[in-house]
């Protein structure tokens, strides 16, 4: 199984701990809104043998990262995962700096604004601020979206070195399965436009009634790439709204938070 690493460095197999990676794959198998998964779910989503899944799930349960509900024979994420999440969020200075600006942005634009980073082949939301005055769509912290269909993922891909981006696109195409060629083509169109636009769009790509735009920037301290995105109902916020009103403001906010490249 090829690891979907978050680093852009080449994989050094001499240092790579396969057992640890497989254990983390089990934790990543949970999707937004899911509370319980069984061994069969883990096998299907990770591709690992059932015996391996049994051992990993037992170990993660002993360590406090999974909790077994014996009445249904399924596992839930336990407090160990929550502790790691809080440690990440509390250690992200940029998130604390960004929140008041995101609140102002969401209120003025009447949409949802989010901050995220890469997690394997997905983008994970670190925080989302929703407008209080309009019906907006915004995913909660911890939610994930594919790099291929989300504006956030496309923006992240756009600023990666060519060899890293090509490798990621190959993995994404393989993971997407049916319809992958069209998805990659749509993503590449937005990525190609980044040089001129300095942002990437997603118009009804991951949801029939969601339009979005995203802008990447580097954290001043850690130099990792984060991505700001803004999303809203396509029925009331058309493409022109995002291109002419939302995108310029989002790019300005990204420049305030870090190096937008």
Topology:
Elements: H1 18-28, H2 39-46, H3 50-62, E1 66-69, E2 74-77, H4 79-90, H5 93-109, E3 112-119, E4 122-129, E5 144-146, H6 151-158, H7 162-176, H8 180-197, E6 200-203, E7 210-218, E8 225-233, H9 239-257
Antiparallel strand pairs: 1-2, 3-4, 3-8, 4-5, 6-7, 7-8
Helix pairs in contact: 1-3, 2-3, 5-9, 6-8, 7-8
Low-confidence stretches: none
- Please identify the top-level CATH class of the largest domain: Alpha Beta
| Number of spatially distinct domains | 2
Number of helices: 9
Largest sheet: 6 strands, antiparallel
Give the number of DSSP strands.
8
Radius of gyration: 19 Å
Structural class, from secondary structure content? alpha+beta
- The N- to C-terminal Cα distance equals 34 Å
Shape label? globular
Named at the architecture level, the CATH assignment of the largest domain is 2-Layer Sandwich
Strand order of the largest sheet: 5-4-3-8-7-6
**Strand residues, percent:** 15-25%
What is the helix/strand order? HHHEEHHEEEHHHEEEH
- The overall average pLDDT, rounded, is 85
By CATH, the superfamily of the largest domain comes out as GAF domain
């Amino acid at each position: 199984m090829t690891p979907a690493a978050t680093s852009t460095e080449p994989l050094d197999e001499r240092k790579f701990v396969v057992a640890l990676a497989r254990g983390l794959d089990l934790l990543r198998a949970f999707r937004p809104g899911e509370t319980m998964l069984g061994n069969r779910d883990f096998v299907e989503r990770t591709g690992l043998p059932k015996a391996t899944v049994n051992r990993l799930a037992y170990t993660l349960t002993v360590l406090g990262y999974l909790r077994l509900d014996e009445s249904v024979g399924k596992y839930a994420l336990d407090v160990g995962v929550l502790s790691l999440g809080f440690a990440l969020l509390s250690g992200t200075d940029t998130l604390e700096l960004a929140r008041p600006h995101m609140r102002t942005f969401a209120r003025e634009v009447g949409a949802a604004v989010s901050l995220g980073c890469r997690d394997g082949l997905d983008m994970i939301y670190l925080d989302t601020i929703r407008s209080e005055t309009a019906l907006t769509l915004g995913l909660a912290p911890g939610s994930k979206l594919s790099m291929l269909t989300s504006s956030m993922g496309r923006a992240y891909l756009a600023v990666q070195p060519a060899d890293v981006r090509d490798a990621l696109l190959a993995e994404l195409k393989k993971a997407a399965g049916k319809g992958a060629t069209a998805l990659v083509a749509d993503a590449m169109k937005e990525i190609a436009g980044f040089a001129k636009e300095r942002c990437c769009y997603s118009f009804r790509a991951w949801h029939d009634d969601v339009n979005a735009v995203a802008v990447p920037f580097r954290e001043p301290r850690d130099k990792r790439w984060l991505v700001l995105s803004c999303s809203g109902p396509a029925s009331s916020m058309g493409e022109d709204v995002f291109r002419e009103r939302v995108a310029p403001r989002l790019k300005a906010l990204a420049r305030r938070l870090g190096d937008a490249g």
